[in-house]
Amino acid sequence: MPRTTSSHRHAANVLGALSLVVADRMNTAVEAIAALGPSAPAALVAMHEFLDGGSVTQLSSMLGLTHSGTVRLVDRLAAEGLVERVGAQDGRAVSVVLTQRGRRTAARILQTREKSLASALSALSPDEIDNLAVTLDTMLAAVTLARAEERSVHTSDRPQPWLCRLCDFAACGRSEGNCPVNNVVKTSNSS
Amino acid sequence: MPRTTSSHRHAANVLGALSLVVADRMNTAVEAIAALGPSAPAALVAMHEFLDGGSVTQLSSMLGLTHSGTVRLVDRLAAEGLVERVGAQDGRAVSVVLTQRGRRTAARILQTREKSLASALSALSPDEIDNLAVTLDTMLAAVTLARAEERSVHTSDRPQPWLCRLCDFAACGRSEGNCPVNNVVKTSNSS
DNA sequence: GAATGTGTGTGACTCATGCATATAAACTAG
DNA sequence: CTAGTTTATATGCATGAGTCACACACATTC
To answer: Fewer CB within 10 Å: C terminus or N terminus of chain B?
Structure first.
């Protein structure tokens, strides 16, 4: 296929199809592990990765849910013994911490996610995977910027769910400066 | 980044993040146009592309909904004047056809989808886009096969929604044999 | 033409969520 | 130190998309 406009339309279309199917598979696989609604896996992973002991409000902004929705979610998670509410220093706040079981579940979620994603990559050669990674990094940076702009333009928009929900920070190489999203955020300003 | 196992984990992770965010943006953009639930845009596009005048049952298997769920969806679409139920030859069946308004809405959905996808590609050079397209084609073919296997193994699984929902057939080059999903399906057997 | 299969619609319910509101703790001022 | 405001959590009620079980209409076959 030549590098015509039509080949770009093909690229866009295939990107749409693949994103949809990859996200679908990831979500269904992961929701089967913590069958407490679409947000439950994201909540567990967020806590596991960087938000253990955080408040309900923090959780709600990660997930893009209302506060009350998040309260109910935490109720469900607590009923399953995946999290516990413990008092924070701030007397009105609550610290939501993962239980042992919750930590194991979060780990299983991440593992399932990676398995699902690896299967999508399985048909590629190591070279192709490396090239793909570079391209995806570029795209992710662009989308991160686009999202930030949208947020600053449309002031009273619905709260957006966190871009990196379900991400495995270690796999992404966030601490080594390899996470494209984190890099964009650092060089501009807000999350 | 060297082609180590860790770089593959990075690739997998970024693929997950990007798929999620691209699918999210696509879905929210598109659901805003036909605000009748998550399946409404997919239904309109499916009809627009290849299922105009199809039965409720056909629609339900495309969307991965139960029959009754699809009936309710068609009710909603009809209430908005986007589709109409007309009698089919088969007296018990019903032919769901797009109205003029429905056709326009479907076209707007496709257009919005493409805009959203194009923005994700905007940071890439033409060469990168072409290379990406080849890689995505390969992955899409692999995922299509994986899905087919899962379906044949887990016999009584939940019905899977259609892989190519929201796809623009013309953009994909389906008729020219450029659609990777269609090509896999043709060389093996069922949809 | 009676039995069985296929397609559609309906009533009752579920479940995740949002909105409005209540309550409680923490700051801030006088 | 008390009063008012802000911040955090929780709760009642509503909603919307979907499922399940069932009923009905037409078809097909023996």
So the answer is: C
Structural domain spans, chain B: 1-122, 124-191
- Minimum-distance nucleotide, CA of B40 to C1': D17
Q: Which residue of A has its CA nearest to B16?
A: A117
Could you say which of B8, B119, B133 has the minimum Cβ distance to residue A14?
A: B133
Instruction: Return the CATH number of the domain spanning residue range B1-122.
Output: 1.10.10.10
CATH class of A1-123: mainly alpha
How many interchain CB pairs under 8 A, A with B?
223
**Which residues does chain A have within 8 Å of residue B165's beta carbon, measured at their own beta carbons?**
20
For the entire predicted model, the pTM comes to 0.93
pLDDT average, residue stretch A101-110? 98
Subunit contact B7:A129, Cβ cutoff 8 A: yes
> B12-46: per-residue pLDDT in tens?
999 999 999 999 999 999 999 999 999 999 999 99
CB A100 within 8 A of CB A48: no
